[in-house]
Amino acid sequence: MDFNPEEFVEEYREEALPRLQTIAECLLRLEADPDDTTVFDEMLRAAHTLKGSSRMMGFVATGDAAHHLEDRILEIKRREVEATPERIDELLGLTDALSGMVMAPVGSDEELGEQPAEPPPEAVPIEESLRREPVAETAASETNSALAQSSVRVRVEKLDRLAELVDETILGESRTQVSATKLEELEDLARSVVRSDVQAGISDDLRRRSESLYAGLRRLRVAAEGEELSFSLVTDELRRSAAQIRTLPLATVFTPLPRLVRDTARERGKEAELVTEGGEVELDRTVLSALPEPLGHLIRNAVDHGIEPPDDRESLGKPRTGTVTLTAEQSGGWVDVTIQDDGGGLDLDALRRKASEQGLDPDLGEDLIFAPGLSTAGSITHTSGRGVGMDVVRAQVAALGGTVRVNSEPGRGTTFTLRLPFTLGVTRAILLRCGPEQYALPTAAVEEVVPAGKLDRVSGREYLDYRGNAIPVLRLATILGVSENGSRMTIILRWGAGQVALLLDEVVEEMEISLKGFGPLLSGVPGLSGYTVLGNGDVVVVLDPGYLAGGSPVRAAASTVLYTSEPAAKRMLVVDDSPPTRGMLKSFLEREGFEVIAAKDGREALAALDVQEFSAVVTDVDMPVMDGIQLTEGIRSRPNLRRLPVIVLSSRGDERDIRRGREAGADAYIIKQDFTAAKLLGTIERFVG
After folding, report:
1. Contact assessment for residue 575 and residue 602, using Cβ atoms and an 8 Å cutoff
2. Per 3-state DSSP, what percentage of the chain is helix, strand, and coil (rounded to 5)?
3. Is 281 left (phi over 0), alpha (psi -120 to 50) or beta?
4. In terms of CB atoms within 10 Å, which end of the chain has fewer, N or C?
C-alpha cells in the first residue's frame, strides 16, 4: 500500500510548530546571554528533526528551509558569526517563514512529492557525517517513545462531547437531590398521618398500614440519601477529571510572548524584557484559545505606552531595560492573569482631556482607557494610535465570562488584572427571582448581595448609598420588561472601576450551574449568557453581568444609553409571550436608538396601537389570547395602520407558515432558527430607514 502523506499532515504540524517555538525561545535566550552555549544542541536537534520529517512528508521546500536554518545556527555555534541582534532578527524571521510553510494548505506552495528545483547534494560518506557537529537524536527518540506509551491522541470534538455528558451527569445529581428532598417531605407527611391515626383512634389494621407506609418511606429516604452521597462523590471526581481533560497550562499561551515584547521594544526604540510566573496554572481549553489576542494587546500596550525610552528611564533612576511581569494564579473557580509594567503609568490628564473632547465623563479616571475610540497616542503605528483595542479587550474577556480591571501609579507603572473562569462548562451563579420568572446571574462580577435600602434621586436618576459611595441603580424588572414584585434585594455588580446596584425581587440561592449556549434565536441578543437546567427540570435564563452593568464603564456612569428615558426618534412595538425574549429584544432595540413598547400578546399590542403611533411591529406567532397572525390581520383591517411595517419573528419555518404570514399582511418573516441581531436590525432599517 502506497504511503499517503496527506493522512499525517495534522500530526506533522503538531510536531513541527512546537519545535519552531523551541528554536525561537532559544534564540531569545542566546540574545540575552551570548555565552549560553546550552541552547545550540536544543536548536539543532529541533531543526534537524523538522528537516527530516518535512522531507519524509514530501515537503521538499520546507525541508530545505529547515536545513538552511540549521546551517545558520551552526555558524553561530562555530563562532563564524556573532549572535548580534540583527543576526537574531534574521533567524527569527526564518522561523516565522517556516511556520507559515508548515501551516500552508497542502498543495498551495509545494505539492506532495515535489522534486527540488536543483539536484540534491551527493550522498555524504559516513566518515564525513561523523565529523559533522553531533545532533542528539537519542534523547528525543526515547522521550517520544515514552510519551507514545503514556498518551493517546483524541479529537477535540470527542473531548467536548465528553464534557457535555459530564455536565448532564451533574444535572442528574441535582435531580437526585430534589428527589431525596421530596421523599423527606413524604416521610414527614406519613409521620403526621400516623400521629393523627393514633389520636383519632382508628382501627388497628389501618394504623398498622399507616405505620408500615411510614416505615417504608423512612427506609426509602435513608437509602436515597446514601445513593445521593455516593452519586455526589462520583460526580465530584468526574467533574474534576473532566476539568483536567479540558484544561491546558497557561505556558502554552505565555511561550510566544517574550518574542512579542522583544520585537515591540526594538520597533519602538526601547529595551524591555518579559518575566513570567505561574505558567503551570491550567485553564479551560476554550478560554485559553481565546486568550492570545487580548493578552497580546495588553503586552504590546505595556511596552508601547508604558515602558519609557532607555535614556528617560536612566534619568529617572530606573534600569534602562523595562520589565513587563506576567503572572497567573488560581483562586477557587477563577484564574487571575496579571500584566504589570514598571513604566510611567497612565497619563490621566491626557485621558480626561480626550474624554471631554469626545463627550465622555472625565471623572471615570483609569477606566477611561476602555472607552471606544479613545486614544492618547501622538502618532499612528501598527500598535497604537487608532483608538481601538482596549474596549475590544474588555469585550473579549467579558465574552468568556471574565472581567478586566486596571490600576495605575504615576511613575511606577500600570497593572491589568484579567479574572477568568477556570472552566466554561460549570460555574457558580446566583439564582434570583424578578417578577414571575427565575434567572441565574454568574458570580464573576457580583461584589455583594444586600437588602434593598433607601434610594436617592439626582437629576432623575436613582442612586444607592453603598459604603459611603453613591452608585447608580438599575431595576432588573425594567431591563427585562417584567412587572416588579417588591424589589427587596440589591446585588452590587462591579465592572471595571465602576459599580452598579441591581434591584430585584428575591435572591433564592447560590449554586453551581451547567452553562449552555443558546441557538440562533437568542445568540445575537445582548444581555444573555445562555441558559441552564435546574435539578427540578426548570429551564432558567443566565444573564450577562457585564451587559447589566453597562458593559462599557463609560456608559454605565453616564446613565447608559440603554436605560435613558429620553424620547427616541423611532418607536417600535415588540410582541412576544416569553418575558426573557420580549425583554431582551426590547433592550437590544433600545440600544440601537429605538424607543420600545413591549406587549405579551396580540390583544395587548392592539390596545397599544390604539393610543400610540409606532414605526414598526416585531411579533411572534404562537401566543395566547391573540396570536401573531391574528394581530397582523387586525393591523391590516384598520385604515390608519395599513402601511405600518409588520415583521414576524417565529420558530415556524415551513413554506405554509410563511405563506400564512404573507397572506395576513406581514412585510417580512424571519425564522428564529436563522435569527441574528444583524438580520433583525437590517430588516427594520429596510422598512423604517
Report:
1. yes
2. 50, 20, 30
3. beta
4. N
Cell of 539: 429551564
First to last CA, the chain: 65
- Could you tell me if 74 and 135 are in contact, meaning their C-beta atoms sit under 8 angstroms apart? no
Q: In 3D, which of 544, 563, 332 has the Cα closest to residue 462?
A: 563
| Per-residue model confidence as pLDDT tens digits over 26-60 | 999 898 888 888 889 889 988 888 887 787 677 88
Question: Which contacts of 209-217 are long-range, i.e. CB under 8 A and separated by 24 or more positions?
Answer: 214/187, 214/190, 217/183, 217/186, 217/187, 217/190
CA distance 447 to 475: 17
The three cell numbers locating residue 377: 497616542
pLDDT above 50 for 313: yes
Q: How confident is the model at residue 421 (pLDDT cuts 50, 70, 90)?
A: confident
Q: How far is CA 2 from the centre of its chain?
A: 45
| Predicted local distance difference test score (pLDDT) of residue 574 | 92
- The answer to whether residues 207 and 197 touch, using CB atoms and an 8 Å cutoff, is yes
Q: State the CB neighbour count (10 A cutoff) for residue 370.
A: 24
Task: Please name which of 651, 394, 421, 393 lies closest in space to residue 515, comparing C-alpha atoms.
Answer: 421
Measured between alpha carbons, how far is residue 103 from residues 62, 255, 390 in Å? 11, 19, 30
Conformational region of residue 201, where left means phi above 0, alpha means psi within -120 to 50, and beta covers everything else? left
